[in-house]
Amino acid sequence: MQKTVCEWKKCTACKACIEKCPKSCIAFKDELSYCNAVINTEECIGCNMCKAVCPVLHQENLKSPIDCKQGWSSNETIRENASSGGIASAIVEQFLEEGGAVYACVFEKGAFPFTQIISQRDVEKMRGSKYVKSDPQDIYGKITESLRNNQKVLFIGLPCQVQAAKNFISPKLQENFYSVDLICHGCGSPEILKKYLLKKDIDIDNIEKIRFRTKTKFGLVTEWRFLSRDGTEDDYLKTFLTGLSYTENCFECKFARLSRAGDVTIGDSWGSELPSEEQERGISLILCQTAKGQRLINSSKIHVEDVNLDRAIEFNHQLRCPMKKPKRYDVFWNGIKKGHSLHFMLLRCFPKSTIMLFVKKIKKYGGGNIIDSSYSISFVLKEEG
Length: 385
Prior knowledge:
The protein is α+β, with helices and mostly antiparallel strands.
């Protein structure tokens, strides 16, 4: 077996080890259902700098919340265009206004890289939930450079990525480093998204916009085209919501807990007891772990309300434990790696619910008028042989 930075199949794809290696002898290997940071043993000098930054091996200084709120951006346009309450955008805009440097994930040229957020257009590309593995490669050095230039830096990412950044940055530079981690359910390889879109005759490299959900409606939208007839869950989102498309490390995530890596944690305020009209417009859960986090929230243009933390944890189980590995997980991936489509494998893994949904659509739209062939069982069976 090849030598890896952390245990085989446990890599989170943070890629901090690749950037930290003084010999550039680590390669990232995406195997769809899992990934690994593989070490070239012939060039490795055994310095273990890769292991020192790995968030799987080091989760130091995780902190429990000292303040818990829910809320939304005071800017109605930001709130309207956000997946939930627009808290991340509100924090970013205030941080930029104060002269800080912001680094976050965007959708650009068919990929989900991390970049420095400078313009309003960058903020717009950053906005929205991204249910796919983002790519932080080469971002940690840029963050370090900004800190060395005496800039305050805000980094927004998944908790494993935030921990990787904290492991990477020298303790002497940490004072001006601010972090926001996102409540993560798990995520899958971007290659799965690419393959799915190609089945829909969409080349991800040729689209400028993609959305994975609109408020409480989970469904892919590319260039304002819904990939399911009525704008509800498409096959890609079904595999995400059931955990089928996650990489294996997600089911043993060390960050799916109440103690967090970031100064602030944000996610959806599922289970909110606020009026339904506010829920429909989007409400974010806001957990502050440090005084830095409180400063971020207090200085931003955000409306906050009290929240019942026990209820928030009940409806966000990732604050307690990672998702359990689906029983049909291996069946799903065996089929995908043989070239079968997501829809065919959903039919294999969840035949009853898939057929019931098909029947429901027949009743709703009429048997002769079903346009979206992804819901035609006969089409899928013929396609897959």
